[in-house]
Design a protein that fits this description.
alpha+beta, single chain, 34% strand, 596 residues, 6-stranded mixed beta sheet, Alpha-Beta Plaits
């Protein structure tokens, strides 16, 4: 135990966590030079392709300092705000955190958010300035920022270049000197915290655990204290970074246990594993239940693939503890799932994984947020789809989720960012502007989640020339004047096109949808009315003219009354067709509207 150190790397997205992890793996000779590749710990094809970390990834390394061998466990974490849950779980399995800051960009929004998560867990922070080899790096300025943020001594900050490997060994020395050893009793009943889990088709559920007390060995009986289920320990081992089996896992270790559970819900993240014969009395504090922020419907294009989609969602849920879903049926799209995500990147990654790993063709409906509806009889319910909204006469008021938003930006962009925030109905929090230094500031706002969900991040990057960074956290529900806007095609409401809009913006939004549908819908033999309505009141309307067949083509010569007679007959036929005609809305129209 005295020679074990557990730490994780935290940083803003693209500040060099995975590259630093690569160099540490090389220095400790964990991976042979011939097997080494960039982003070594990013196992997923999608991570390597996009250059981002999506899943946390543990690895065990050996390092000798002053002739004494140490075991060092590292957990590499994601940087994007949507994967904060992965970061918080990693932190609970460690005693120390390496905080990486880019020497060219300085402290960003996610740096601060991840730092606060680490401080909440009372972790030892080792500040590191990365990318000191770049011509644009400004080490003295970034050092000053870190000192102001952490209140540490400048000598505690390690300046490194993860790309060239310069000074990286100093981080390992700092970890051994400053990070405390794990506390735990090897003789006590076994207790292990599940901080992640994956599903293997042949071996069932593999739990990634941090051993707190006792030991686990192959063949023992394990018991899950939260789920109250038992199984056998089929194998234990550690990450190197591939799975390497060993005889026992001891207190203080980070490793894996092959549980033999076949159900995807059996080994929940945050549960405590103990020995069935010698059970521990108290479970470990688990994780806060994560709240999904963004909801979308996920359907298979081919409705016969629904069973495949259902199985795929179950398997993904095990690998991604933040994913929430329930079955849903839509008249237009068939059977599918209503899914809850932490943000748009999370939605994007999950749908991409379903496409690649399970070969599914998907339809993903427009992202929406969950609203809290207060009924006139005092009941309160949460709705995540506009179709679930009760009749307006039964609603007292509606509340929408708002987010506490922190935006780190160079000072010259403050004006344009404030303008963007006002457009999205943002309100300043106390201490609206906080200056990090003369040229950089943090803006604190509360913005409705619906305003952030679709394109806020893109617009923020646009108005700040790419320099601003964003972090947001759930702040609570606030009352809002919201209504459900229905879309009618040929006087029939189309369920999946319904949306929640602000009452004062409804007309503009209705007009946009009607105009888009007019462009996209195929013309019929009769005229089609496209309408946006709130309740019984139509707020925007467009007409799609009928296709006209030339019924007079067969005429030659004769009186004009013959021509008129045929045209009148056609007109009467179209009128009759209009009363019974049904419009089939093509999938492209759904997708285009949903992406508006």
């Amino acid at each position: 135990m005295k020679r074990i150190r557990n730490f994780c790397i935290i940083a803003h997205i693209d500040h060099g966590k995975s590259t630093l992890a690569d160099r540490i793996l090389e220095i400790t000779h964990t991976v042979e030079q011939r097997e080494m590749k960039e982003q070594m710990l990013d196992q997923m094809e999608l991570e390597r392709e996009r250059g981002i970390t999506i899943k946390l990834q543990p690895v065990r390394m050996q390092f000798v300092k002053d002739g004494v061998p140490y075991t060092i466990n590292l957990i590499d974490t994601p940087g994007h705000v949507d994967f904060t849950y992965e970061v918080s779980r990693s932190l609970q399995a460690c005693e120390g955190a390496v905080l990486v800051v880019d020497a060219t960009q300085g402290i960003q929004a996610q740096t601060i958010a991840n730092l606060y998560l680490a401080l909440e867990q009372n972790l030892t922070i080792i500040p590191v300035i990365n990318k000191i080899d770049l011509p644009a790096s400004n080490v003295s300025r970034v050092t000053e920022e870190i000192v102001n943020l952490l209140g540490c001594d400048p000598s505690e900050i390690v300046p490194v270049s993860a790309k060239t490997g310069e000074n990286v060994e100093r981080i390992l020395h700092a970890i051994i000197e400053r990070v405390p050893e794990p506390i735990g009793e090897e003789s006590a009943p076994a207790r292990a915290l599940i901080f992640d889990s994956v599903f293997d088709d042949y071996r069932g559920v593999i739990a990634y655990v941090r051993m707190v007390d006792g030991t686990f060995a192959r063949g023992q009986q394990l018991y899950l204290m939260g789920k109250k289920t038992a199984s056998s320990v089929l194998e234990v081992g550690y990450f190197h970074p591939k799975l390497v089996s060993e005889d026992t896992l001891r207190a203080g270790d980070i490793g894996y246990i092959v549980t033999g559970f076949k159900g995807v819900e059996d080994a929940r993240v945050g549960d405590t594993i103990t020995n069935k014969e010698h059970q521990a009395t108290a479970a470990l504090p688990g994780y806060k239940e994560v709240k999904p922020m963004v909801f979308a419907g996920v359907y298979a294009k081919d409705s016969s693939k629904y069973p495949v989609l259902r199985e795929a969602m179950g398997k993904l849920k095990l690998n991604d503890a933040a994913l929430v879903f329930e079955p849903e049926n839509s008249t237009a799209l068939g059977f599918g799932f209503r899914c809850g995500f932490l943000g748009l990147l999370h939605l994007d990654i999950v749908s991409e994984r379903l496409r690649r790993e399970f070969g599914l063709d998907l339809i993903v409906t427009t992202p929406s947020v969950a609203y809290r509806v207060h009924r006139t009889n005092g009941a309160v319910e949460i709705i995540s789809s506009p179709l679930d909204l009760p009749d307006r006469t039964h609603i007292d008021h509606i509340e929408e989720p708002t987010m506490a938003v922190d935006i780190v930006t160079p000072t010259q962009y403050i004006g344009s960012i404030m303008q963007l925030v006002n457009e999205k109905r943002g309100k300043p929090r106390e201490h609206e502007i906080e200056y990090l230094e003369e040229t950089r500031a943090i803006l604190h706002y509360e913005i409705p989640l619906a305003g952030i969900v679709v394109d806020f991040y893109d617009k923020l990057k646009n108005v700040s020339s790419g320099y601003a960074s964003l972090n947001y956290d759930f702040a609570g529900f606030t009352e809002a004047d919201l209504v459900r806007m229905d879309i009618l095609v040929a006087e029939e409401a189309v369920g999946p096109l319904a949306s929640m809009v602000y009452a004062d913006e409804a007309q503009r939004a209705g007009r946009v949808v009607c105009e888009s549908l007019k462009e996209l819908l195929p013309r019929q033999m009769f005229e089609i009315k496209i309408q946006a309505a709130i309740g019984q009141k139509v707020i925007a309307s467009e007409r799609l003219p009928a296709m006209r067949k030339d019924v007079t083509a067969k005429l030659y010569g004769g009186d004009v009354t013959r021509k008129r007679k045929l045209l009148e007959k056609q007109k009467a036929g179209k009128k009759r067709m209009k009363t019974m005609g049904k419009v089939d809305i093509p999938q492209e129209a759904f997708l285009a509207i949903l992406k508006r």
